[in-house]
Amino acid sequence: MEFLLGVAGVAVGAAIQFWFNLLLEKHKTKAQKELDEKRKALLRKALENMPPGKEWRKLTTLCGIIGAEPNETTRLLIELGARGSEGEEEVWALLSDKPLD
Q: Do 56 and 83 form a contact (C-beta atoms < 8 A)?
């Protein structure tokens, strides 16, 4: 009988831990999505409002604007509908402004 109570206790504890971890992961995912959306809005604004005489934005500038590393910034730019230059390295523009032929 004691053995069955011990097994039941372990099972209940494991179930509680599983659901806690699931809720924690869901919260983290939601927070990351919200951050991504805010960052994409900033990127869109930066790419839509280019300085006079500029057609491309440097990746380092875009990273600084949103406070993210280059890999994260690149991922968000692609999700946003931007592309890198074929000629210059590490510069980006919206596909709508610089379509590929």
A: no
Q: What are phi and psi of 3, to 5 degrees?
A: -60, -45
Asked whether residue 20 is domain-assigned, the answer is yes
Tell me, yes or no, whether 68 lies in a domain.
yes
The answer as to whether 99 is a domain residue is no
Which residues constitute the domain of residue 80? 2-94
Alpha carbon distance 79, 67 (integer Å): 17
Whether 10 shows a pLDDT value over 90: the answer reads no
Name the residue among 46, 24, 37, 41 with its Cα closest to residue 93: 46
pTM to 2 decimal places: 0.72
Burial class (CB in 10 A: 0-12, 13-18, 19+), 26: exposed
Provide the percentage of residues in the chain whose pLDDT is more than 90. Answer: 58
